[in-house]
Specification:
Blueprint lengths: L1 E8 L1 H5 L3 H21 L2 E6 L7 E4 L6 E4 L8 E9 L3 H10 L2 H4 L1 E6 L4
Antiparallel strand pairs: 1-5, 1-6, 2-5, 3-4
Length: 115
């Protein structure tokens, strides 16, 4: 079964990081990615540009509306994701808990609707 880990962090926390903290976090992510790959559960991952670069679009009620910025005003924004292939939610949660984003923000875990 495929699961996606949606990584949410507060951009202010990222901006306040010292270069040393940034380097330490980069190493933590490299180690995490290595562990996912070594375990054979890694599928994909990506980092997203800041929420301020987002554009949302809707065609609700037949009316096209485009809006700059994220859909919702929140403190934490979606910054990236990991996709893994594991047997069940418990295994997905165990991997999500190891994600460095869990230490500085939160990791939302969702199962793929199509397996």
């Amino acid at each position: 079964m495929h699961y996606t880990f949606l990584l949410y962090t507060d951009p202010a926390d990222r901006a306040a990081m010292t270069p040393e903290e940034g380097a330490r976090q980069q190493k933590a992510y490299q180690a995490y990615i290595g562990a996912l790959k070594e375990a054979g559960v890694f599928v994909d991952m990506d980092w997203l540009t800041g929420a301020e670069t987002a554009t949302t679009i809707t065609r609700k009620r037949g009316e096209r509306r485009i809006q700059d910025g994220p859909f919702a005003e929140t403190k934490e924004t979606l910054g990236g994701y990991f996709r893994v292939k594991v047997e069940n939610l418990d295994e997905a949660l165990a991997w999500a808990e190891k994600c460095p984003a869990a230490e500085t923000g939160l990791v939302e875990v969702r199962a793929s609707a199509f397996g």
